[in-house]
Amino acid sequence: MTNDAAAATDAGVTSESDETDVPTAVGVKFGSARTALAFDDGDAARTVHLPSRLTDGEDAPAGDEGVHDGGETVRESPERVEFMLRSGVPATARDAESFERFARELCARHDLPAESAVVYAMPTVDDDVGLANFGTAVGECGIGEALARGFPESLCASIPALGDGIEAVDEVFVALNLGATNLEACAYRRGERLLPFVSAEASGDRVDRRIAEAVEAETGGRVTIDPATAREYKETRADFGGFDPFTDAIERGSEGAHEFTVERGVMEPLDEYLDDVVAELCDFFSRLASSHMKTYQLARARPLVVSGGMACIPGLVEELEARLAAELDRPVSVVVPDDPVTAAAEGAHRLAVRLRDAA
Predict the structure, then answer these.
(1) Could you say which DSSP state residue 26 is in?
(2) Spatial distance between the Cα atoms of 302 and 286, rounded to a whole number of angstroms
(3) What is the dihedral sign for C-alpha 279, 280, 281, 284?
(4) Which residue ranges are recorded for the region named Disordered (predicted)?
(5) The whole model's pTM is what?
């Protein structure tokens, strides 16, 4: 590995251990909306994900946890929750305190040992205070005594998309992360990150707000929904391959339930979102060609790696591929990891295994 793929980054500096037991390898992606965790579990890797939030008044992560090892999914519905990573890192002292509790309790819930090799999938953010808060918090969560390192989230997510090992760190490609907070794009040249780009103009959160506005407009102002409901519509109803209008209801006090039908309020904001993504990505490719022509030419021959929660919407990736090809006037190939939500944690875990075994 070279450069980004070989050096410790924001999550801390490698520390060595005198223990003879093999440290547990752990990969973690703390997201603004959801956190994913991949770790050694016997001879296999176990992956879980859950909301990046604390239930109000409790020192424990909220429920709604998905287990990706064949186990059951546990669901809880706390009435009041606290998110602490809305920008991808804990931006304030209060967020940092909540995040430290969240990280500590998450590690305790899954019995992660102190003697572990941990890789954190890091978002691309321009927030020195938030990154410092992040480093301090994960340093107090009681894991990573064998080593603790951070790598770019988009690189980690590309690893399971491009092979069964860590082939991605030896290849040249462009990665696109369609996240809740930001759209991220960058080129990788054998592990070296080139021209990292971040935009909040095309994000899952922005789509949620647009859906809420579109539903209000479609119902003539009779219905207002919150961003959480808009996000639920996006995640459970959106489909670029065949969207079906649906009926929902809201309570209006003494008036009782008011039913309404959504026909355009979900897919029109998502259409606009994809147009914004294509525009941002075309601009990125133009700047990449200007500053790193050789890398641009090599990357054109490789699939574009797409990850992030928005990639889970049925038909979205295929529609992105078609629109981008039309805009660039050339064929475009897109590859997506099996689970875009947990891919960054899975890739981070593979890096942790490699770094642990090489130590």
Answers:
(1) E
(2) 17
(3) positive
(4) 1-23, 48-78
(5) 0.85
